[in-house]
């Protein structure tokens, strides 16, 4: 590199350092207002200064406001970042491309291993009411008719059975 080119490069580097010192905080504040995030604002600032560095040899020759150029660059970078972060709707085509989940019986086996002993410790009346209401999906009226007891008794037994079952499972 010749002496003249070396001096131009040093001038450009020095001009860039001044640019950073003079405009960094204004660009950061502008990016913060655009993005609503300190982290994203710092990303925008970093990318803006990187682009300024890449153009440092031509920036001092520009007509117009250097700060205006920096803010325009920061604006475009912020818009691009926010567009990338915006969620894209999932189309039916995407949903249909997913594999259906493979049934996993581990949860059912674990629940059975805990639930069966706890159910055995309940009274027969409580166990039968729970079986009718939750396993057979009978209504309170159907369960009452099946056992020959009033519906209020079925509700009471179900309440106390669930309470006792929760206590057993918590222990």
Distance between the termini: 81 Å
Please state the overall shape, judged from the principal axes of the Cα atoms.
rod-shaped
Strand content: under 5%
What's the total helix number? 9
Kindly report the average pLDDT value: 83
- Backbone CA Rg: 36 Å
Number of strands: 0
Major sheet: size, sense and barrel closure?
none
The structural class is mainly alpha
Question: What are the segments in which pLDDT stays under 50 over at least 5 consecutive residues?
Answer: none
Sketch the topology as an H/E string, one letter per element: HHHHHHHHH
Helix content: over 70%
Structure overview:
The radius of gyration is 36 Å and the shape is rod-shaped. The mean pLDDT is 83. It has helices at residues 3-35, 38-54, 56-59, 66-85, 92-97, 106-120, 124-135, 140-147, 151-170. The protein has 171 residues and is mostly helical.
Element layout with pairings:
Elements lengths: L2 H33 L2 H17 L1 H4 L6 H20 L6 H6 L8 H15 L3 H12 L4 H8 L3 H20 L1
């Amino acid at each position: 590199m010749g002496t003249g080119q070396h001096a131009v490069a040093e001038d450009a580097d020095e001009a860039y350092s001044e640019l950073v010192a003079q405009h960094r905080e204004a660009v950061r504040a502008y990016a913060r207002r655009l993005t609503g995030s300190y982290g994203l604002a710092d990303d925008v600032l970093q990318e803006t200064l990187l682009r300024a560095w890449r153009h440092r040899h031509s920036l001092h020759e520009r007509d117009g406001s250097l700060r205006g150029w920096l803010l325009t660059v920061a604006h475009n970078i912020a818009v691009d970042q926010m567009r990338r972060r915006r969620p894209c709707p999932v189309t039916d085509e995407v949903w249909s491309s997913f594999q259906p989940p493979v049934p996993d019986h581990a949860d059912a086996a674990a629940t059975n291993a805990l639930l069966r002993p706890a159910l055995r410790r309940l009274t027969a009346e409580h166990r039968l009411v729970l079986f009718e209401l939750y396993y057979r999906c009978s209504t309170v009226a159907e369960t009452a008719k099946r056992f020959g007891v009033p519906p209020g008794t079925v509700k009471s037994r179900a309440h106390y059975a669930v309470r006792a079952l929760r206590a057993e499972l918590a222990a």
